[in-house]
Amino acid sequence: MTRRASAKPKVSALPDAGSPDISQRPSARHFLLRDKRAIAGMTVLALIIVSTLFASFVSPYDPLSQEFDILLPPSPTHILGTDDLGRDLFTRILFGARVSLFVGIVTVTISMVIGVGMGILAGYYGGWIDILFMRYIDLQWAFPNFIIAVYLVAVFGTGLANVIVAISLAFLDDFARITRGMVLSIREEEYVLAARSIGASDTVIMLRHILPNALAPIIVQATLSVSFAILAEAGLSFLGLGVKSSTPTWGLIISDARSFFTRAWWLGIYPGLAIMITVLSINFLGDALRDVLDVRSE
Question: For residues 82 and 97, what is the distance between their CA atoms, to the nearest angstrom?
Fold first, then answer.
């Protein structure tokens, strides 16, 4: 007598009741395309970047070329007017965007690498490493970032490289604090404990298991910090602590125009509008990314 094999019921793979169905969650691209501020920010920022990269083709003038047509108001020949040395203001704003965007991106990249590294080490190991790093961050946190940047430029000296170093060191505390807070909550997760139980090294755990799961707030902070870095560079250049005077930057253009505001209003208005529009565009994009990546908003 043979036994008849019992048919096994089919079990469908159902998502855990405690976790959302990721496959049904709209993508980040879907969220960004629905956010009007994000679309406006990305569009304006893309136009600024393209115009900056092709500034030599967009404007026929040399940003350093001095002419006899000084303090000309906006006209079809010079759409934003000229400064006290006859230089085309629109051209100088375009080339100044190169410096501002370059400083903003490079400084935030340096700050993020150093700050994230400090935050991971402090949050994962704790002990004296946490005390050493966080007491330094607390000391830096007690002063405004711009004041720290001014002090560091005074120590290192002016110039593009020194400005980048100064702003980078001034902004790393934000990344260190955010990363440390994320690591403290992630390091006790089950997948981290499982990786540690099978003998994974600390480096592998930090880089492959902890850092990818802590990236969302770091990306948002990096996006918003670019606008802060642009403002910091403009402020330093306005005070004469930025790049060389021969390099056109937004802050330096406004600084040179201080003596002519009453006679040539366009010298201060248009560079200020360029700073405002760029910073607002980046902030709109950063706010949209925060809404997309912040799990607490779900």
Answer: 17
d(CA 146, CA 162): 14
Average pLDDT over the chain, rounded to an integer: 84
pLDDT tens per residue across span 27-55: 555 656 677 888 888 899 999 999 998 98
**pLDDT (tens digit per residue) in 193-207:** 898 889 889 899 999
Q: Kindly calculate the radius of gyration of the chain based on its CA atoms and give it in whole angstroms.
A: 26
What domains, with CATH codes, occur in the chain?
Answer: 53-297 (1.10.3720.10)
Q: SS3 letters for the chain?
A: CCCCCCCCCCCCCCCCCCCCCHHHCCCHHHHHHHCHHHHHHHHHHHHHHHHHHCHHHHCCCCCCCCCCCCCCCCCCCCCCCECCCCCEHHHHHHHHHHHHHHHHHHHHHHHHHHHHHHHHHHHHHCHHHHHHHHHHHHHHHCCCHHHHHHHHHHHHCCCHHHHHHHHHHHHHHHHHHHHHHHHHHHCCCHHHHHHHHCCCCHHHHHHHHHCHHHHHHHHHHHHHHHHHHHHHHHHHHHCCCCCCCCCCCHHHHHHHCHHHCCCCCHHHHHHHHHHHHHHHHHHHHHHHHHHHHCHHHC
Farthest CA pair distance, the chain: 112
* Among the listed residues 226, 127, 133, the one whose alpha carbon sits nearest the alpha carbon of residue 177: 133
More confident residue, 245 or 60: 60
> Do residues 92 and 79 touch, judged by C-beta distance below 8 A?
no
CA–CA separation, 75 and 60 (whole Å): 15
